[in-house]
Amino acid sequence: MLLPMQPWPATPNPVPAFFLGSGVQLIPAGSVALVAPFSTAPGFQLGPGQDSATYPMLWQQASGMRFRMPEGSLIVPDVNGAPSGGRPPASTTQTTMITIQQGHPTPDLTPALRDQIMGDLQRWRVHTVVVGPMYNQAAMIAFFSQLFGNNPQQVDGVYVWWEIPS
Known about the structure:
Helices cover about 30% and strands about 10% of the residues. It is α+β, with helices and mostly antiparallel strands. It has one domain. A four-stranded mixed sheet has the order 1-2-4-3. The protein is globular and about 65 Å long.
């Protein structure tokens, strides 16, 4: 009889100190935070050898569910009532972030793309944007810095833009 090795091999999932300490308390309770990497259905590859697509949900849980996110692994019906496959409805922001996460060239921030992403953020009522440890992090930070016209604050292992204009 074959039995699996015990104890079960496991590796801890990293939670940046920001989500465990006082830093996350600067996000207004119950407000919406967009967290990078964009959280997607489990198993979605973000970059070479990395499957951190569900980390933002873990970080949200570690914060005591202090904030809401316009992303995550969930089952929502599409326009025809069929399950969407575990992803939020498609958006320009989602597509752009996933493109960057996968290591593809960062899209040019044209006026049209800027308007679409800012429209998503306004529609979702995003108050804060957080870029955590992720594949292609520098490109994600550069993209949001260009979008918002300023650099993030580095706080306890993450990069944060506060009070996103609505």
